[in-house]
Structures are given as C-alpha cells and as structure tokens.
Amino acid sequence: MIDHDRAHRFYEMHQQGTFVLPNAWDAGSAAVIAATGAAAVATTSSGISWALGVADGEQLQRDEMIAMVARIVRAVDVPVSADVEAGYGSTPSDVAVTIDAVIEAGAVGANIEDRLRTGGTPLWPLEQQCDRLTAARAAAARGGGRFVLNARTDVYLASVGEPSEREDMVLQRAEQYRRAGADCLFVPGLIDLDAIGRLVMRSPLPLNILLAPGRGPNIAQLTQAGVRRISVGHTIAAAAYGVARRAARELLAGTDHALLDGISHPEMQQLMMGK
Fold first, then answer.
1. Which listed site, 2, 113, 157, 260, has its alpha carbon 20 to 30 Å from 97?
2. How far apart are CA 23 and CA 47, in angstroms?
3. Backbone angles phi, psi at 241, to 5 degrees
C-alpha cells in the first residue's frame, strides 16, 4: 500500500514552486542521490534498462522494471516516482496492473508516456491514451492514498507534426490528460524557453521539463519560467558510464586519475547498510 507520509510529501512538492527530481537507476545510485539532500528520487527507464543489459524503449518486462523500482524504494527514505514507460501492455487493464505493481513496490508516483512503439504512428491516439491514464488513476485510487500521475507526451521528443503545430498539440493532450486524472504534464524534448514559458501559462497541469545539459535552458531559467518539476532522465546514469569509460581508458593507458574522486568504500557501505 501507499506510504501516506511519502505520498503526501511528494504530492505537495507539485503544488507550488520548482523542484529538481534526480533520476536513479539502481539502489546504490538512489542512496547516493538521497544522501545529497534530494527531497525525492525518480527512476529512469533508460538507466535501468542499460543496467539490466538491454536498450531503452520497453525492452524490459514489467516485473523486471518493478523489481528494480522496489530495490530503489528500499534504499531511500524519500518519495520515489517510477518511470514505467508506456505502462507495459496494449490495454488500459495492462496499465492498471502496472500501477498496482508500482504501488506494491512502494513508489508514490509514476510516469506514463504516450509513445506508441509499434504501428504506424508515433503516439497513442488521444482517446486511447486517455483510457490508459484513466485506468492508471483508478488503480492509484485503489491504493488508498495520494499518487502523482505524471502524464508524459512525446509530441516534441518524437517530432510529431509540424513544429508550428506542436505547442497546440501538447495543450490539447494536457487538457484531456487532466480530465483522465493526470497530476502533472511531462514534455521531454522541448528546449525552447519561450515555448516552455507559454506552456507554463496555458497548461492546465503543472509542467515537468527534461533538463538538456548544454542544449537547453538551465535550471535557473526553467525555474524563472515557472516550470514546476525538472527531471534529468538518463543524464546522471550517462555521466556515470562516462566516468567508467574514462577510467578504463586511463587505466589501460597506465594512469588512474579518473578513480581519485570516487565515493569511498566505507561511505558506500554505510549508505547501503542503513537499508
């Protein structure tokens, strides 16, 4: 069942202001992130998929993803939101089963994306996606507490339609997703600060933007624009893998500089022994 204290804290984070939600991919990364003072942790489907040896994009089975979410929840004392891709199944009932499992794992929120990875269109048709979100909301209600349903639309990430049409497409989906029970709107792939500002003003749901280091607005700019929730997606995991690559190259070249800034073994032991 839902941890009411964590669920309430996470829900309240979405009511005003701006917060950064770092994304973890395993128990160790979640514990490290929480120890820095993060008020909540999200999972990343990319990072978890890579850690389990497959590519991102619903290549994992539901139970594989949920097992990692459960490990992450057990590793931290802060709220956890789960990235469960498009819900692992073709029907609304499949999505409901996924949300039931997310709640059983101890998470207090979840992303449900509208990317359709089979068939001829990049996104789930609007009516069908609303049915899926409605099923997710009903499953969350059965959990007996607050649950933040973050509706992700890939209009920008999948380059749907003409660029001039995308803002209105997002707003149309935002309104329908709100009616279906979503608490927040996630628009990855959008890096135009002016468009972000307009969506903040016009969206019926609080806006979640994916940070794009070096390409898009920074945290201060997104905060100033009124974005409620800032995610980092796969980028912390990618940075960690970048360190692994750099360290291996240096070792093979006869140096070890990349290893000098790592978290010590005793500190990691302490982080993990407390759970």
1. 157
2. 9
3. -65, -30
What 3-state class would DSSP assign to 86?
coil
Separation of alpha carbons 33 and 24, rounded Å: 7
pLDDT of residue 59 exceeding 70, the answer is yes
Domain ranges in the chain are 4-273
Could you say which DSSP state residue 165 is in? G
Environment class of residue 123 by beta-carbon count within 10 Å: exposed (0-12), middle (13-18) or buried (19+)?
A: buried
CA triple 183-94-45, angle to 5 deg? 65
The helix/strand/coil state of 14 is: coil
Task: List, for residues 176-209, the tens digit of each pLDDT value.
Answer: 999 999 999 999 999 999 999 999 999 999 999 9
Q: Which helix (H) or strand (E) holds 102?
A: helix 92-105
pLDDT of residue 252: 97
User: pTM for this one?
Assistant: 0.94
Determine contact, residues 87/136, Cβ cutoff 8 Å.
yes
34 neighbors 76 (Cβ within 8 angstroms) = yes
The string of pLDDT tens digits covering residues 225-242 is 999 999 999 999 999 999
Rounded to 10 deg, the angle between the 92-105 and 62-75 helix axes is 30
> Looking at residue 143, what is its pLDDT?
85
What is the rounded distance in angstroms from the CA atom of residue 274 to the CA atom of residue 22?
Answer: 21
Write down the residue that tokens 């029907």 correspond to: 91
Q: Domain 4-273 class?
A: alpha beta
CB of 115 closer than 8 Å to CB of 122: yes
57/69 Cα distance (integer angstroms): 17
